[in-house]
Amino acid sequence: METETEPYVRLASLRELHQxxxxxxxxxxxxxxxxxxxxGAVAALGFELAAVNLVRPDGDLLVAAVAGSDKxxxxxxxxxxSRESWERRxxxxxxxxxxxxxxxxxxxxxxxxxxxxWHTTGPAPRYPDEWHPMDRxxxxxxxxxxxxxxxLEVDKPRNGRRPGPWGCEALQLYASQAAIAxxxxxxxxxxxxxxxxxxxEQQALRASEESFRQAFEYAPSGMAIAEVGGESHGRxxxxxxxxxxxxxxxGSVLRRYSFADLVHPEDTGVLLRTSAEGGRAELRLARRDxxxxxxxxxxxxxxxxxxxxxxQLTHVEDIEERKRHELALAHRASHDSLTGLPNSxxxxxxxxxxxxxxxxxxxxxxxxxxxxxxxxAFEGLGTPxxxxxxxxxxxxxxxxxxxxxxGLAVLFCDLDGFKSINDRFGHVCGDAVLVEVARRLEQxxxxxxxxxxxxxxxxxxxxxGLGPAEASDLxxxxxxxxxxxxxxxxxxxxxxxxxxxGWAACGMTTEEVLxxxxxxxxxxxxxxxxxxxxxx
Length: 536
Prior knowledge:
Elements (H helix, E strand, L loop, with lengths): L5 H19 L5 H15 L2 E9 L5 E7 L2 H7 L3 E2 L1 H9 L2 E3 L2 E4 L1 H4 L28 E7 L5 E10 L7 H53 L4 E6 L8 E4 L1 H7 L3 H4 L4 H4 L5 H10 L1 E8 L5 E13 L3 E11 L1 H15 L9 H11 L14 H10 L28 E10 L1 H8 L1 H17 L6 E6 L2 E9 L1 H15 L3 E3 L2 E3 L2 E9 L5 H26 L1
Helix pairs in contact: 1-2, 1-6, 2-6, 14-15
């Protein structure tokens, strides 16, 4: 039977409970929240001891907060009990709603497990609801999704009795509010850690951006950032001082262009392939004064995971000196050191690049077995078969079937009287004569013709698109250009020239072509010699 004072005691307890619940969400950290929960259980729920066992990420439970006894705090605070032992506790004993009560008559089986505890022995209860020192009362605290967050353990009721219905209801209410406070504290902690992480990432990003800016602006070689995609694809949106100096243009001007506007016309294809594929390319870029500089481009497309490629970072390195050296080496390897003309190897390479090993058929197709079958099939139709098997532009002799009366003339030139100049005046004079003959030969041919020094006093001229009469006229003009006196070291010397005209054609080797022209030159020289003897 309820006494007259019990409603007033209960009302006072409700006020205290309301106050401690209000304090639960004022804590600034998870540790403060857990200690507030333990302190509130002692202050408002009528227990002398309380401990909060927090579930760790690995599943075990840590005694994270103790209230009511310094000795108990020293004995168990910071110690850990396994999840398995706690599951055993929460599954046995009496269920008081959401609470778990294990009376001393059953709790003895838990005395030697790994859960930290402070319980002491004592005499048997004197009345049915008297609290025994080995009694255990737990209030599990769950998140909204059913996850176990912590377990509140209380002991030593101040009135010495097991809590009644109102006490159990108050403890359950407090545990549910404490669970909310723990969830909020965990959320705040996660948010604080996320904010700290975000701030660190932003600081790292700012540092990275500043590092990139300095590396970009003060790089010793050219750097540029260009747009990728859209109407302004390829337009330079950022350049550094090194690139401005290299191209002789201010940044405000360069930002109006793309590399496609600056590249040498012959290197446009190289630039397009490099822009599409990324990687490296060597090409020429226009400077402000109209000259071109050799550069090495290295492209890196900076992509955005959501929207695709955004910008292209290009590193521009000046390789003018290296390229000049390479070109000089290549020129020396392919040109005669005395006259500057293409040498024998270069002559053979150019000639070999125009003829193939297999002669064409009468329709201009390579004479392969497959082509022969196609030719036979079209023979009775009066039209040439389609050229589906061979894209080579065949070279014919002027009098060959399928030709147009013109061909690639090979003029073999041998100087007459050169040996006597060498013998009489020495090699220095002879070298000067060869240099002058080379100059006169170059003056006498077209821009697209090739004049090469085969060796000694032998020269070869390649002239494409000539008929027999035109080739003969060219030989006469070249001979007449060589005959005039040559001034060397204050003296005047003369040399003559004999020309033999051969014709390059597919199916011949370069050696066969040169041998044919050489033989014709020999025949002409012998004929002229015989003519002079008859005239004498």
